[in-house]
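Thread: quick sanity check before group meeting

JM: Hey all, I'm pulling together slides for Thursday and realized we never actually wrote out the predicted structure for the chain we discussed last week. Dropping the sequence here so it's in one place. If anyone has concerns about the input, flag it before I start.
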Amino acid sequence: MSSQIDSSLSDNPMPVARLASGDSLRVALEGMRHRPLRAVLSGLGIALGIAALVAVVGLSASSKEEISRQLDSLGTNLLSVSGGSTLGGDTAELPQDAVEMVLRIGPVQTAAALGSTEARIYRNDRIEDAESGGIGVRAATESLRETIGFDLLAGRWLDPAVGEFPVTVLGVEAAQRLGISPQLVEESSPQVWLGDRWFTVIGILEQSALAPELDRSALVGWTAAETYLDFDGHPTTIYERSTEESVTDVQAVLPATVSPAAPDEVQVSRPSDALAAKAATDAAFTGLLLGLGAVSLLVGGVGVANTMVVSVLERRQEIGLRRALGATRKMIRDQFLGEAVALSVIGGAAGAVIGVIVTVVFAVISSWPIAIPLWSIAAGLGVTVLVGIVAGIFPSSRAARLAPTEALSI
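JM (edit): ok, ran it. Output follows.
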């Protein structure tokens, strides 16, 4: 009889318990469904970490796209020339005909100049001399707008028709400090007390990215400055544009061209380098923020691991019952590992959506182009899977090691 039973068992071995992949996922999600608050709080750490990573990368990419757009529109072929220091430590003076000499350089397309004056500008003639508001009065050649490439918020530029008369164009910050709005310029042509006479405001400049000093300036025509403000005709800054491929060559010959007798006393710079430096600074700052996002993600992963450990302790009887009904160690391990991964992935997906929304909203408010690299979203989701696996390895292994009798005896 015994031999017959043994023969029957050998002919019909016990089937190996198996669980389909879809059933494993359903079991894992079922464990989360019965503890929704804990799942939400655990996934929140992952969501915040991924949201931070996606938003930081997206905002950085959008900022760089905006800077690239500005550089493309403003050009990188603008050079500025100013007086350096003399041997005595004073500021060197540029020759009066410096603009004409710069225009003799073959690749140079256009050139213009600014000249500082001693005049001060006030809203009216009753304000104390010390209350100038930090607004500088500068003489400007008519080609300045063409050379730098700025626009006007209101009014007109210092063209040949008005450049010789007592009129001025204000930078956007200067206009704000004087309480003169674009609408006022369009409607009534207000006057300001400049030097010792009234000047009519005929225009307000838009903000200039390549020449920020214009934003805080009142500009008058070159001839008008010599006539009404005792301007000596020496430029303090010269701007020139040349062809893109010849910028480096022009930069090398500008000092000797502007001041043949003392080229060492001439400084040449490229204003667009400031925007490029800003992009580099943004990249460094982005690295710092990515580090903070990674820390948030690590904290979220620890939270998931902690949740799964507690879940194993609370569900020992469930584990014991499933083992008694034929579940293998692998099934138990897959169940809890699946829960950890699912918890991380759901949190990561929510975080990616939050990061995209934050990037879009901020870019729209800042008038930036929206640039969200797809790799950042893909990488974020990939990281969440990795975090889920790492966070679930110990709890799932611990659950799989529980013997049915040990788990059911609690």
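AS: nice. Residues 77-270 form one domain. The chain has two domains: 19-70+277-408, 77-270.
JM: adding both to the slides.
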